[in-house]
Amino acid sequence: MNAPTGRMTDFIRKQTYETEVLQLRRRLAKVHRILTAGGMWPLTKGHASARIPGTDKVLILGHIHATGRSLDQVDVDDIVVVNLEGEWLEGEIEPVDERYLHLEIMKARPDVMSVVHAHSTYATAFGVADVNILPVGNRGAIFGPSVPILQFDRQIDTPERGRMVSDLMGKGCAVVLKNHGVAVASDSIENACITAFALEETAHLHWIAAQLGPVQRISTGEVQSVLTGARKAEFFAHAWGHYAKLDPWDGMNRPV
């Protein structure tokens, strides 16, 4: 069999790329539906993003609210493409204004493949009260030594504001936005989703414990143990099956 010509090779690469991007779109749409079902964004306001590997392009939600739809209905066509500078490249719907929150984190952190911005109730309340969420409980270790609070309560809709979030997050995985919600980041779409849930669960547990007495954070040694090696992979791998079942499209013969 003859080796493929240059034109054929380019065609195969293009087809492979388009297939990979379609799969990313499906995974990202699914996470929007899961986070909605899990109550991570009241009034279904929030968004998630995913870096397209090997490119300067990012998949992010379009402004579907302008069409009268909510995030429990997100499908692949609602996901648009922007570059790391925030320019709208592909898609029928204009990307969300707060895309710079996602993009500035990704620009500063090559390891970050996905970002979620949510308005989860308990974590947001800690920002309102100006109290840092501590790493408590068996899902809180990834947030050690504590979750920083951005002392700015407006939309993150410019690169400069996005850099404030990125700078504060540093090498961590979460920031509370004062009076505005949270931002979390991880190395995959699914892990960013899990991180958003883990942050809200940790904030809820912290709040309950505070009603009973002084809050005791997880030891530094335990935090470091969970943040490295096999235990970190286990932290995420064991949780995804649970959250994936929240997708209301599960079992409806739709592509996932």
Automatic annotation (TrEMBL):
The cross-references to SMART domains, in alphabetical order and at most eight, read:
Aldolase_II (SM01007)
Q: Name one GO molecular function term.
A: metal ion binding
Class II aldolase/adducin N-terminal domain sequence ranges = 26-207
Query: Quick check: keyword Metal-binding in the entry?
Result: yes
Task: List GO BP terms, alphabetically.
Answer: pentose catabolic process
- In terms of superkingdom, the source organism counts as Bacteria
User: Which organism is this entry from?
Assistant: Bradyrhizobium canariense
User: Would you tell me the protein name for this molecule?
Assistant: L-ribulose 5-phosphate 4-epimerase
Question: PANTHER family this protein is in?
Answer: 3-OXO-TETRONATE 4-PHOSPHATE DECARBOXYLASE-RELATED, FUCULOSE PHOSPHATE ALDOLASE
Keywords, alphabetical: Lyase, Metal-binding
* InterPro entries, per database record: Aldolase_class_II_sugar_metab, Aldolase_II/adducin_N, Aldolase_II/adducin_N_sf
A GO cellular component annotated for this chain's UniProt record is: cytosol
